Amino acid sequence: MNLEIHSSWKHRLQNEFDKPYFKDLLSFVTDEYHSHQCFPPENEIFNAFNFCSFNDVKVVIIGQDPYHDIGQANGLCFSVSENVKHPPSLINIFKEIETDIGNPYPESGDLTHWSKQGVLLLNATLTVRAHQAGSHQKKGWEQFTDAIIKVVSEKKENIVFLLWGGFAKKKEKLIDKDKHYILTSGHPSPLSANRGYWFGNKCFSKTNLILKKIDKKLISW
User: Where, subcellularly, is it found (predicted)?
Assistant: First the structure.
């Protein structure tokens, strides 16, 4: 598998690339892509880093697993490719943005424009076998993405981390709370949202208030 990852990340993660677990992970992923249909497309696995350089990171959103149906995953958590039906979690994200900051519900579910403004859209697991949710979990991706969270926490300051749901909240222990901002809420999935744990969290306006306070350009959600 070709390790096409932006140079600003590559040299900071070289220690991870050299570790045995990562070499085993690449071997596993390469075999999976050769033997099965997997997502996202191989050239989009590292999109989260290629659209958002290390230097540009202002906000981090943590997801769990890529979408596993055809044409959905594009390497950015919660995002789908152009002209793809919006999954339920993404619908609820857009609904919250509508009520929180008044942006109209968008046609496209592609969140690349968030990435290019400094939002790192990081899934804990970066690949998945078609129609088999969680099929690439516990193969090494989580160790790698935990290392990314730690690098951002250690090497940067005043980053806004958005931790949605129980899985993402477990990553809080990797973040230096004295240097960064952490906003938590329920997950945007229908199960959580319908129980009242998502809607009204105002994380998008709160993020921009923090960015304004620290003189950083606001995110156009």
Answer: Cytoplasm
